[in-house]
Amino acid sequence: MSQATENVRVAPVQVGKYLAQITIIFAAYFVAGKLGQATSNIRSSNLGPVWPAYGVALAAILLCGYRVWVGIAVAAFLIAFLSPVPLVAAVGQAAGATLAALVGAFLLLRIAKFRPSLSRLRDALALVVLGGLGSAMLSATIGVSVLYATHVQAYSGLSSAWLIYWLGDSTGVLLVAPLVLTAPDLLRIRPRARIGEFVGLLLLLIATCFIVFGDLPLIPVKLHVLAFAVLPFVMWAAIRFGVSGAALSILFVATVATVETALGSGPFALNATFTNAVLLDVFFAVLSVSGLTLAAVIAEREQSEREREQLVRKQAAMEARLRLATIVESSDDAIIGEGIDGIVTDWNKGAEYLYGYPSGEIVGKPISFLIPTDRSNDSPEIMKKLNDREAVKHYETVRQKKDGTLLEVSLTVSPIFDNEGRMIGVSTIARDITERKRAEEALRESEERLRLTQAAVHVGVFEWDIKKNENHWSPEMERIYGLAPGSFGGTYEPGSSAFTLRTACSLNGTIKGTFKEETFSTRSFAWSPHLERFAGCIPELPSLAIRQAGRFECWDSLLTSPSAKRRKWLSQPSAAG
């Protein structure tokens, strides 16, 4: 039901478009026909050397389809009926023009595979041979037969009338059809410099036409021999502005030459009417074929160059994709492609080695095969970030191999978007961090044992990062100095102020002496802090200075809490001195 309603809505739009096309084509054919009949001085009865209306008819069918024949037939009949011919002759001429245009379009579209853009040489030649010379034979044959059947005789006989009829329709195709087919290209001429060039070209061409065909009184010499002086302008238009530019320039030449010939001026007004008409048609045909074929050759060459450039870009892009695919395939990291539904689409060698699944076994299956039960929340969390257009980097989790072994992995997950910005998949890079996790765990255990050992033997440790001015004290170091755990300030100044003046001087002197050394990267020292809490010195505490890239980075030292006997010795006055 909804589809039927939609068809009802679309139908008026289609009918309106069709009626608009019919109206425009009717008006264009009628105007072109009246212009063709205007040059009565070089016409005989109802025939003349140029019939632009036939070019309009053929172009209309090529652009709008065979269904617009109605507008052509009505306009052709009206044009013929308003001329001095019987009603039967008008009907016959209209039928001949319409049928010939339909046949010409059929030959071009079905046999020549014609492109209205005229971007190939074969299109220009097909328009000349099939659309112009070929189809016009049918219209000329039907039209002249009907005229002579109704006793309307033109020129000096049947053969002469047929030749003019044929040349007139053919010339109409060559002059008008290319311009109608490619007129939108004229609107795309950019920038202003090219527009100025085109306008200048047309002005020079029109001036030349009036000089050659107008027999101007200011020029005492007849320049009839220079009729083809307009050809360089046509070639200029063809080279610089394509088929549309060439077609417009040829139409300007034909208009000026036809009008001046009808007025009795120019090289085509010196002979009998029939001879002048034939020479005029041949002149137009030479200009049209030369300009159109040249423009088509240039357009075809430019199209070939564009296609070659596109092919080169496609090949470069393909080679880049192949290189990327090779890199991905040979990577030691597991690189996995997934659809937004979680189905595995790509699986490289690194993934096979890491998880144990061959590509043929896992592609097409859900990625959940790799996720342990206790990690089922990983995917929703990752997808939430991806939907927010956030890449997930260094996401550490656990995955399961084919044999059931669990391994620690670091995931980098990125969304894949199409040309319209929609997410169509996910790219995952997985790296095995099991060994790193084991090393970190071993380090933590070692640090915990060291901390317990230091607490047991009452050894304090401090580290001074010279570059950052950070002083780190261990909890035992704070306990030795009587500080609450975590209450140390964290820079060198609180650390040095915790020592007595004598200790600070000893520390500073040792550091300055160390800084004077320029050749070591690590070096051990011993120094003796004076502990005011114990009123004495602890001699020869081990220390280490570290240099990197010519700069001192840190200073490490150990401090042992004195035993009861040692504290008693430290409290003696001689020791304190």
Kindly report the average pLDDT value: 81
When the domains are counted, the total is 3
Strand order of the largest sheet: 2-1-5-4-3
The helix tally amounts to 18
Distance between the termini: 111 Å
Give the beta-strand count: 12
Structural class of the secondary structure composition?
alpha+beta
Characteristics of this structure?
disordered C terminus, Beta-Lactamase, five-stranded antiparallel sheet, elongated, alpha+beta, 3 domains, 12 strands, disordered N terminus
Q: Describe it for me?
A:
β9 and β10 form a beta hairpin. With 577 residues, the chain is of the alpha+beta class. It is elongated. The N terminus and C terminus are likely disordered. The protein has a 5-stranded antiparallel beta sheet with strand order 2-1-5-4-3, with helices on both faces. A 5-stranded antiparallel beta sheet has the order 7-6-12-11-8. The chain folds into 3 domains: 290 residues, no CATH class; 101 residues, Beta-Lactamase (2-Layer Sandwich); 126 residues, Beta-Lactamase (2-Layer Sandwich). It has 18 helices and 12 strands. The termini are far apart.
